[in-house]
Write a structure and sequence with these properties.
Number of helices: 11
CATH class of the largest domain: Alpha Beta
Helix content: 55-70%
Strand order of the largest sheet: 1-3-2-4-5
Number of strands: 5
CATH superfamily of the largest domain: Glutaredoxin
CATH topology of the largest domain: Glutaredoxin
Largest sheet: 5 strands, mixed
Structural class: alpha+beta
């Protein structure tokens, strides 16, 4: 039964793909019902071709992700500052070990990971440099971008880490009023804060972080890169310690 459902699903997906390949985009709206029916009939009669095509497509996607990841990991090894760029950092100034975090302020798993990271960095701040990268999951977290821009504006005034602590500790309060209230509580210049978070520069900063994340094939948060080791999820402190030992 499950196999039949899978085949039907794959049939639909590949049907759409094949039609888009064979017919120019500008002519898509002019595809005749007869042609659509013929394509679908061919696929129904040859489902094994469909499955093979989907598998080949998935393999190609994975290969492309691996190639992009290699480029990023090589950059971390040879020119870590290019990866750090203008992002917030904390910990070791000379970065013997680089820990890059991709996170979303509305993600509950990121909030859990945040607590673990604070413990981890308290123990290893002389050895590890933590870099924060924004990766808001806009499809499921409506406040993710606004929160990221607010944190970026706080970073401009030297209060990123304090601001992110408040955001992660109050995910149920995220919203316009809370962002301004938090800025006031941290003694930020509110006028400058509002200007920065609504500026094109904040959009650019988020796009750059997300582009790096996309190069690594990130699909969820939190996601971490410790030198050349990649891992994801709200990992335990013991797991992070084990990865650190491996990286050493």
């Amino acid at each position: 039964m499950m196999k039949k459902i899978l085949v039907r699903t794959l049939l639909v997906l590949l049907s759409i793909t094949l039609i888009s390949w064979w017919i120019p985009a500008e002519a898509a709206t002019n595809i005749s019902p007869e042609l659509k029916a013929q394509v679908l009939q061919i696929i129904r009669e040859n489902p094994e071709v469909l499955i093979e095509s989907v598998q080949a497509y998935q393999q190609k996607q994975q290969q492309e992700i691996q190639e992009r990841r290699k480029i990023v990991l090589d950059t971390v090894k040879n020119n870590p500052q290019a990866v750090i760029a203008e992002s917030p950092t904390i910990g070791a100034t000379e970065g013997k070990i680089l820990l890059v975090e991709f996170s979303d302020f509305q993600c509950p798993y990121c909030a859990q990971a945040h607590k673990t990271l604070k413990e981890f960095m308290a123990k290893h701040q002389d050895e590890v440099e933590l870099v924060y990268k924004h990766f808001p999951l806009t499809d499921i977290h409506p406040q993710a971008v606004a929160a990221a821009k607010a944190a970026w504006a706080a970073f401009r005034q030297g209060k990123f880490w304090e601001y992110q602590d408040v955001l992660f500790s109050n995910q149920d309060k995220l919203g316009e009023e809370f962002y301004v209230e938090t800025a006031k509580g941290l003694n930020l210049n509110v006028e400058e804060f509002n200007r920065d978070r609504n500026s094109p520069a904040s959009d650019m900063a988020l796009r750059q972080d997300m582009a790096l994340g996309n190069s690594l094939g990130i699909y969820g948060t939190p996601f971490f890169m410790m030198n050349d080791e990649l891992f994801t999820g709200a990992v335990k402190l013991s797991d992070m310690e084990a990865i650190l030992d491996k990286v050493r």
